[in-house]
Amino acid sequence: MDFELSGEQKRVQAQAGQFAEQEVAPLAREADEKGEFPLHLVKRMGELGFLGGPIEPKYGGSGMDYVSYALLCEELGRADSSVRGFLTVHTSLVSLCIQDWGTEEQKQNYLPDWLQVNGLAATR
Q1: Which domains does the chain have, with CATH numbers?
Q2: Quick check: 34 and 85 in contact, CB under 8 A?
Q3: Distance between CA 38 and CA 16 in Å, rounded?
Q4: Which helix (H) or strand (E) holds 38?
Q5: Cβ-contact 80, 21 below 8 angstroms
Q6: pTM (2 decimals)?
Q7: Secondary structure letter of residue 118 according to DSSP
Q8: Of 87, 23, 17, which Cα lies nearest the Cα of 50?
Q9: Residues 36-93: pLDDT tens digits?
Q10: Of the candidates 117, 106, 123, which has an alpha carbon nearest to the alpha carbon of residue 39?
């Protein structure tokens, strides 16, 4: 069995690590101290395709595999568990549930807006 990461998995890991290090980590302490969530990071995660990680592209997702999604979560968690928590709730508890168990009408109605920059879930 081959446990090496694929090229795409390495790309996601590197992109997530760079985002976490350069954009998330510098804000983490201040956000915690103020008790505020940096909403502009939600927009950035949308731009990078992170909000719709394992969601099918036909619904506006990135279609990444679950190993890539886990690597994304791991990298974000290194920088700020609140940002990682937001992503996992948004993706795993909400978007994936709609994708897996929602009607086609629900999928088309909700997922595209929630996964893209112009449909910031955090502003609703």
Answers
A1: 7-123 (1.10.540.10)
A2: no
A3: 17
A4: none
A5: no
A6: 0.88
A7: G
A8: 87
A9: 999 999 999 999 999 989 999 999 999 999 999 999 999 999 999 999 999 999 999 9
A10: 123
